[in-house]
Known about the structure:
It comes from Pseudotabrizicola alkalilacus. The protein is of the alpha/beta class. It has helices at residues 34-37, 46-51, 75-88, 90-115, 121-126, 128-135, 182-196, 222-225, 230-239, 250-255, 262-265, 269-275, 292-302, 319-330, 351-363, 366-369, 380-387, 390-396, 413-427, 451-465, 474-484, 498-508, 513-527, 532-539, 543-554, and strands spanning 2-5, 53-56, 61-64, 67-72, 139-148, 153-161, 167-169, 172-173, 200-206, 215-221, 282-286, 310-313, 341-344, 372-375, 400-403.
Amino acid sequence: MMIKCVNHIDYLITSAKDQPMKSPMLPLRRTIDSAGLLDRGGRPTVRELLGSLSFDALTGALHLNGERVTLQLAEADRILRRELVHLLGEDEARVLLLRRGYQMGHHDAAYVARSWPALDRGDAFTAGTRLHMFSGIVRVETVHNDFDFARGRFSAEFLWHNSVEAEDGPDQPRRSDRPVCWQQLGYASGYASFFFGVPVIYKETQCVAQGHRCCRVQGRLATGWGEDDPDVILFRNRILPRTPLTAARRPQAAQVPDAADLPLVTPVLRWLERAAQLPLPCLIAGAGSCGQDIAAAHLLRLSGRAEGALRLTGASTGVDSLRAALAQQRKPRRKDLPPALVLSGVEALPAPAQAELAAELSHAEPQLWSQLVVTSALPLSHLSAGGILPALWARLAPLATELPGLADRLADLPHLAALRLSRLALQLGLDPPVIAPGALDLLADHAPANGVEGLEAVLTAVLVDLPEGQPVTAAVVARAQQRVSPGPARPIAPADDLEAMIAAQLATGSFSLPAHEARIRDLAQTQAGGNLAAAARLLGISRAQLAYREKAARK
């Protein structure tokens, strides 16, 4: 018998190299300590998974860490396979089981990420090994497994022992002239695709059904196989989901990490995992739009507080609005946990509201502290130098981090763009486009205006301009960049014209000394990379003087 998850938790990738078996239909070697395997690998271990199984006789439900599973004979899947082959023919049955496996794998990767939110991403990626120890689907032996989520690199090879799909009955191998582990192959592809955000395709290069001692599979990104590869064509045309994200699906997407977004927050991923475990308010800063909202959403997912979060924008939030949101945190609906509060753009929050929030954090219960996630479009150096009230900074500074701006990640932009382009195409109901070699390298020349939003605008323009069936080329990207950021409508006045410009403004009564001073201070801080002390030296004043002028200007 086997334990089969309703969500089919049958992930086919492992991180630790297991011992081989004598035969795909024979027991493990006696040298392997069966009891020791219960504690092998990362968390959750097999022993912990077994401990998370619970059965409720009143409801007739068996649960694994809160998710319902079923217990059934392996013959159930064999019956399904035989009926599909009989009704559809072998080729169409293969396509259906590949599709079923892919969608189950993708869904279950989300289940693992949701059910064990504090897991390291690599552990979540390889957690299927421990699940298989008691699922009875297959035993996996690693040949090699190389993955880099941040750079989008993946190459793996595994041996599958005792594959249930390769059996025609108890200990009776299926006979075929081609590999037959269709659903498991689709499952492995779907599970891995979830974590990379782009299609990952597994191939079964040998199978027990062909007379081999074990099954052998290889996995790569679809681009690694080549767009002309027959399996890549089959997956793109028949296996990969073609339905765009609809309103009905968005709630689920909000509960799990989006692999196309994660590279943006990779520099602070460890910090987010740590912050999710601490009962403190969190501050996520960065120069401009560089993924602050994405990092905040991922932090909420890691801490299990993504659902029902309250959201405020600093520029449009006054004292009354802030008090109303805080009141909802103090008095949640019966049996509900206090909702999280996400405050975007804290630097634009009016000073009275900042003072109110600082006072609240000074005496609020610790469990409420952990429900506050604050973001800022200013670097931490600006915030600490008077970008927000000192009292509020003192409450947010202990658990604060800063995302690097896109200008500091130019080399990463082509890869980031490729991931987001594929996701954006699916959201628009389009097939993920083929990207010509080097087509996105233009993005590495300079960061797009408006950061992440600007990058999204360029990629949207790429999809709009792209002729149907044609690959994305450098020319298409260049046109999209020109459309989104065509450049200034008129040349900027040279420095020699500054006196004339001031004189003209004085003559018309439009001159503003505070505005000019603010512009000069901003230019100095930009040139100094946000370092207030360095900016003060450029202006010939002390850091304290510059901080005072910044604070006075905000008042």
